[in-house]
Here is the input.
Amino acid sequence: MILTLTDTNSAKISSALLKARRSAGSPAMGMVLTLIVVCDESEYEPAMKAGMHAGREHPSRILLVVTGPGRNSSLNAEVRIGEGTPGEVVIVRMRGAVAAHPASVIRPLLLPDSPVVIWWPGKSPANIAEDELAHLAGRRLTDASTAGRPLAALRTRAETYRPGDTDLSWTRTTPWRALLAAALDQYPSKITSILVEAERNNPSADLLSAWLGSRLKLDVTRRVSDGPGITAARLGTAAGDIAITRPDGLLASYAVPGQPERLVALKRRDLTDLISEDLRRMDPDDVYEATIKTLAAEPKAKKARTRKPTTKKATAKRPATKKSAAKRGGARVSSGRSRG
Here is the structure.
């Protein structure tokens, strides 16, 4: 059933939901969460499709907040229930002054006594913790891969991080992290080097590198490949590399020293799989928090290293004492720890 409402308000939308639910025989008690999707007209169709598919695993009320420019204030809505729609879908289109305060419209539409997740499939606020709609949610999902400068977007996410934030670029690394962790369990050995290969400006590769570097306390070498996405991760050991290589985005070659090489399924996942995974947990992701903050600190460490030669040149005229040599050695150790 599809109900279209023009020049409406929250009360009328709630009444339409109740009417449609009774007609379709779909009780609200079967839904487990509210998913708010904030997008524009160019993004809402794929976002709705991904949300509805994820709703088959997590029955939910999906509120698509579609905003756009306009001088005149308007609020239109479309309610969809039944006919293959899992849960309930409400498309709310806002223009003008009402779009400046969307929480007043969306708050009455939330499912009572259930978690709320908000997702920006495209452009997201610079500081999502201060966003009006974000205050309604306990989990907040962004996607740095849609930004013009993905690494800068991740840095912004780190600077404004609040418990409950997650980026889909991190979710894309889940199969890689699982395989690498399993490889280290299977072949526990001292890791001497780390190499990650990926296409240029891939935020998932930046997060995977930061995760490996922080966990193994080593610098990570990045190599640009033709893609798609992440194409290889290599952990060097004295006996050879623990290597996962995926040149085609479908199958990966999995190699551990002393064992035959194997093929494993490592297909690049679509939005449906990513959203479904993130909706499985409502608690903050502590590992993501530590990783993104490590990533944000890396450029500062690199800047500090580039200034060191200038310092050495300025002090080269003075004979080095044991004390100054010890200080320089301590600085190297400190910068190494900060890079890890």
User: Anything to note?
Assistant: The first helix runs from residue 10 to 24. Confidence is low (pLDDT under 50) at residues 301-340. The chain has two domains: 2-171, 174-268. The longest strand covers residues 85-95.
